[in-house]
Amino acid sequence: MAELPATNFDGDKERNLKDEHLSEEEKRKSHKEVLEEIKRKGREEVAQKREEIKSKREEKVMAENDSPDEEDYYVQTLSAMSISLQKPEKVLGTGLVYDELMLKHKNDWDPNFPEKPERISEPFKRCSELHLVERCIRIETQYGTEDMVLLQHTRELLEKVKSTSQMNRQQLQEFSQHYDSVYCNQSSYECALVALGSTIELMEQILKKKITNGLAITRPPGHHSMNDELCGFCIFNNVAIAAKHAVDSLGVKKVLIVDWDVHHGQATQKMFYNDPRVLYFSIHRYEYGNYWPNLRESDYDFIGEDKGKGFNINVPLNQTGMTDKDYLAVFHQVLLPLAYEFCPDLILVSAGYDCAIGCPEGEMMVSPACFGHMTHYLMGLADGRVCVCLEGGYCIKSLSESVALTLKALLRDPSPLLPPQNEPSDSVAGTILNIIKVLRPYWSCFHYQDLLEDDTEEFCSFEEVNKLPPRLDVKFNNEGNDSKMFPLTYTYDKEVQEVYLLQKKFDPIIDQLIAETALLRPPYRTCIVYDDDMRAHKADSRGHPEDPDRITRIFDKHVELGLLERCLRVQSRHATESELQLIHSSKYVEEMKELAEKTVFDLRKLAWNYNSIYLCQETYNCALLATGSLLNVVHTVLTGQYVSLKVN
């Protein structure tokens, strides 16, 4: 629509003054002529503006592609799209915490106690066998301070634990009986301080960008240790203290804690239950409350309180025997959508491996390779700042392999191939739907789920979604230990001998999984192919979007950002006619081959037969080069020399 000329008020005043001196004949000049004059001038101004706009457009089109004007245009456009063109930071390494000092924490009166020194020595040994340790940056052992402990624990608890270093065996037994599934010896306090301090040191190194991510192979574990009492093999809550330190003192705004230990980390949940800065996510065996720690608050409907409502996520598993497909379904359907919306600055993993195949504690069937995949998924968040901290895991063979594959993922090795995954069990599907049901009001990522409303007469096909917890036949534990005394020896649901035989039963299955898991490490992560000759394919008029500079500028940007030196160049080549005919007909290939002999007019005429295509005499040769180069990259990746590809 044409614009009317802008009104010149000063000019109008001047014309009014002049009108007083005009003759009667001039005054009788028709109003129509005045309007026509105004319209004419308006049309001239509009036409002039159009010419200016057209001229500017033509200048852009006709300008050389490497001109400063075009460069500025694209930079401004990319900036408006919030695309960063900065050179990436130097690639950092993976930190590793391990110290034999922590082997000194052991149960002096029960040799069958599952939380034993081999839980860290054997995983470290397996990581060494796979040459992973030598690829890590070793983080020096640090002792936690009393101030660190007091971030999440009472002074009274700290003093009680400290006093164990001076107790004799009988006193240690009496002390341990006051807590559920806990033992201490004279070295436990020191080991707990080392586990805590080294975990915090690893986290701080990640936040200071001295390392990208890290693994803490430490003990005693921590996620059951509450504010004022020890519990479940745990002394100090290492991960919870680290998270508190991060948000209170290190300027971290949001922390995601992922707890995949088979037991619910009830203490960590309680410590951040009303804190929206920390999103706690736990996937754990529950069986409607019949599994330890037998707490009502471990169910899916406990989602936080006050400002923290919606920031506590429990994924209760109500059946045993859950496999990779069930855990991966939880990750894809619940955790990852939440995590990307939460957008954490740091991820802490309470990595318990008692849900791994063969562990009598969990009676789950998660493969070691699956832990590598779960770790890999998390590394796409928080700019890769992932700190994995050992919690449980009591089948030494599966524990060791699972820890090793977690470390391989942190080192950015390819995740081992998993077999095809079927749909999750009905039990897990029902749990996922229940979680989405209670979290929908707090997270937009769940708004697309078409769940039934409360006032609908219809029912969900998954029975668990139609019920509200708790079950009436379940007896829950009280929150505290009160004055209850606990046994000195740890008891599984089965006898010790039966547990031993059960583990032996799974040994050959675990051995087979290990044998079938490809742990190759290609020398390069990415390969790249580029050939300047492909620029010859171009339109006969300037301004076409499929321009030769598309590939040149991409390649130049790789060089500028230092990415090319981190890749391996793959040789370009021409595809053969037989390769082309795997997809295309002989007639079509011959038609393309004849392009080199055609005139510009004939090429244009032929191009009209296709959708969004231009052709030139060099098109066939360039297409052969593009196809052959891609096939070279595919061959290189499939033969295991590289991990991923980039084609320009």
TrEMBL record:
Keywords associated with the record: Hydrolase, Nucleus
Record's keyword annotation contains rRNA-binding: no
* InterPro entries, A to Z: HDACs (IPR000286), His_deacetylse_dom (IPR023801), His_deacetylse_dom_sf (IPR037138), Ureohydrolase_dom_sf (IPR023696)
Q: Per the UniProt record, which EC number(s) apply here?
A: 3.5.1.98
Kindly list the places in or outside the cell where this protein is found, as annotated in its UniProt entry.
Answer: Nucleus
Any one GO MF term held by the record is: histone deacetylase activity, hydrolytic mechanism
* One GO CC term, this protein: histone deacetylase complex
Ranges of residues in domain Histone deacetylase: 114-409, 544-641
Q: Where is this region: Disordered?
A: 1-68
GO BP term (any one): epigenetic regulation of gene expression
Taken from the record, one Pfam family name reads: Hist_deacetyl
Q: Where is the composition biased (Basic and acidic residues)?
A: 10-63
Q: Report the sequence similarity comment from the record.
A: Belongs to the histone deacetylase family. HD type 2 subfamily.
Q: What is this protein called?
A: Histone deacetylase 6
Q: Which organism is it from?
A: Mytilus galloprovincialis
Highest lineage ranks of the organism? Eukaryota, Metazoa, Spiralia, Lophotrochozoa, Mollusca
